[in-house]
Every structure is written in C-alpha cells, then in structure tokens.
C-alpha cells in the first residue's frame, strides 16, 4: 500500500525532510530513482532533452560503479544527482551503522548532499545523523507508481497528471521493473505539463 499523493499530516510529522518545493511558479521537480540503468536511463535522458527538462537522479552507488559512463552522461546533461544508498537498503530492516555506512560507501561515487531513502523508509535516528552530516533528505509529493506491476501505464500517467501541482516533487524510476509504466507515462507527463506552461527543474543541493 502506498499514497499516490503524500498526505499533509505526514509532511508535518517529518517536517525536517523536503516533500515539495514552495513556489507559486509553474515548476515541477521530476526525480528518477534506482539507476543508472543501461536502457532506462538513456531513454529518460532523451525524453527530458526533447522538452528541455531538468531532473534529479537518485542513484545507487553499485549502479554508478557498474554503469559509470551513463552516470557521467546524467551529469553532463546538466541534471542533479543524489544518493539513494549503495545497495538499496530498507532503513527499517538494517542497523543504524549499517545504513549510514552504506550511504557513506555510495558517497564515494556520488558527490551530492541530496539523499532519498529507498522505499521512503528511514529511522528517525538515521534521519538525524544525515541532517547533521548536512544532507538534504528528499521525499516526494507525488508517486507515479511506475514500479507497481498491478497498475496500467495509463493509471501511472494519470497519477501524475491528476496530482502534481506547482512545486511538486514527482517520483519515477529508471529501472527494469518500472520501465513499462515509466516509458509510457513520462512522455505524456512532459507533454501535458509543458503545454500548460510548466518548467521542469532539478533539485538544488544545500
Ligand atoms: Zn529506490
């Protein structure tokens, strides 16, 4: 079970984390988790370029190591990058030290102070440690659900079109699992919001 639209009460409880960008401008913040991936990431980069869109890629350290040339492409195209742990750890299932060490390991490949916890799951203690280390912990406002094999590509695209608004941080995945839904929804989302005058921006570091 997951929320397509993050409820306000959740944002209030975890108000040290970034859930959306406060703005009156027509701006959206697309994010792509779990890459780089040899097929999905180049696809995303190509779509973004068509719409002159910038985005943020929350990468896994192990994938950066394996697909370094693709990682360099992301940076060269002017997008932001962020740390998503080295091995996609679930913050509720591992010890504090194991979690932080895994993020430190990923940080040897990923030079960024933006962090997004896999599954959105992070202990309060780990959250405090990362904030002390000057990380910006980036959650989201709208979850496309692209990873969910039970939803159709049309539903995935509708999730974003219906829920995103000024300053929304939107989650997609550049991964094998999400490719079917993402590759359908992303071009439609770019097209729809561009036609409404929205600009797609990357997240700023601290
Ligand atoms: Zn992830």
TrEMBL record:
Pfam families: Polysacc_deac_1. Keywords: Hydrolase, Metal-binding. The lineage of its organism: Bacteria, Pseudomonadati, Bacteroidota, Chitinophagia, Chitinophagales. This is Polysaccharide deacetylase family protein. Residues 26-201 form the NodB homology domain. InterPro entries: Glyco_hydro/deAcase_b/a-brl (IPR011330), NODB_dom (IPR002509), Polysacc_deacetylase_ArnD (IPR050248).
